[in-house]
Amino acid sequence: MTPFERRTRRVQSRLAAPGTDADTLALSPGQDLYYLSGVDRDPSDRLLLFVVPERGDPTFVVPALEAPSVREATWIDDVRTWADETGPDPVLDPVLDDLSPSRVLLADRMWAAVSLDLRERLPAASFGLASEVLGPLRRRKDDRELDHLRAAAEAADAAMADVRALGADAVGRTEAELAAFVEERLDAHGGTGVAFDTIVAAGPNGADPHHATGDREIRPGDPVVLDFGTRVAGYPSDQTRTVVFAGDPPPAFETVHDVVREATAAGVAAVDPGVRTGAVDRAARSVIEAAGYGDRFVHRTGHGVGLDVHEAPDIVAGGEVELEPGMVFSVEPGIYLPDRFGVRIEDLVVVTDDGVDRLNRTDRGWRC
Ligand code: ZN
Ligand code: ZN
Ligand code: ZN
């Protein structure tokens, strides 16, 4: 049995469990669909639907031109195709009629056009989100997923070491040029493309947590925030370092960097099975508050990482999710001083049976 089939069977047993009133899962292209079927593609205007009933075999309804690649990627036997001339109705209607579901869980990130269409086709059914049953499965990574996440983190760590080695050679390059260098190094270390738009934010640009990498040239003394990731076998990395390539950093930078580094370490140290997500946020945030920068830490401490770079659970103030072995998330506190600079240090961690393991190990210091 492939891991994809095993997951689907687990989802079916959850759907069939006495406490679950949903009886059907309907997924369009996205990470939920990949997680269960092995079919990896982007949503498009042509309807592609994966229907998982609580009992029996799942069905794919796919546009004819997608059928060969879907069949090749998936363990599912029942792949039904529709043609552009007829549209999906002649194929989809009988599937839905046979099931006559009473409660359908839709992929959380399904396009509204698809979800509204399904609601019209099933006027008697009620609807919910697929995360109701998929959330608890997806947030606990299996060994194979952890291997991919580790490999992606290692590629990012190695790329960061190459960036650091540039030293004074980085001065005079633009943010965009440095981002291109990062991306070339990620590929060289076994990554495939980027997991999200690479952030290189120099000097005052670092005070914007999601700065769009641009044309600013790196100057001596500039703190530079580098936040990037690649993918290995579909699984992403996501890490941040803040460095100074040459020259003396601005006033207060060293103190702020020390505080953020300590906050990251405190967040990581708080991770243990059974601890709530809010306690991890508190551990990191209290270090920054004690240093007087509480109002300059303007985002959550972290986010779950899996097939999606941002997924459950959020590491956020008041978060009540209990940590379980196999969960992977970021710990990424930051301090942002408008018009001056920003500092963020981000590592991915995995919850283990008796504590925590860091996926990122590359140097966290600011000096190159
Ligand atoms: Zn972010
Ligand atoms: Zn990041
Ligand atoms: Zn992140």
Write the layout of secondary structure elements.
Layout: H1 3-16, E1 24-27, H2 31-37, E2 49-53, E3 59-63, H3 67-73, E4 79-82, H4 89-99, E5 103-106, H5 112-121, E6 126-129, H6 131-138, H7 143-166, H8 175-188, E7 192-194, E8 199-202, E9 223-228, E10 230-232, E11 235-236, E12 239-244, H9 253-269, H10 277-290, E13 302-304, E14 311-315, E15 328-331, E16 334-337, E17 341-344, E18 347-352, E19 355-358
Bound molecules: zinc ion (3 copies).
Residues 238, 303, 330, 332, 346 line the site of one zinc ion.
Structural overview:
The protein is an alpha+beta fold and 368 residues long. It folds into two domains: 3-139, Creatinase/prolidase N-terminal domain (Creatine Amidinohydrolase, Chain A, domain 1), CATH 3.40.350.10; 143-358, Creatinase/methionine aminopeptidase superfamily (Creatine Amidinohydrolase, Alpha-Beta Complex). It is 34% helix and 22% strand. The protein is built from ten helices and 19 strands. The strands form six sheets. A six-stranded mixed beta sheet has the order 4-3-2-1-5-6, sandwiched between helices. A three-stranded antiparallel beta sheet has the order 7-10-11. Helix 1 (3-16) crosses helix 2 (31-37). The model has no long low-confidence stretch (mean pLDDT 97). The site of one zinc ion has 5 residues, from loops. One zinc ion binds at residues 238, 303, 330, 332, 346.
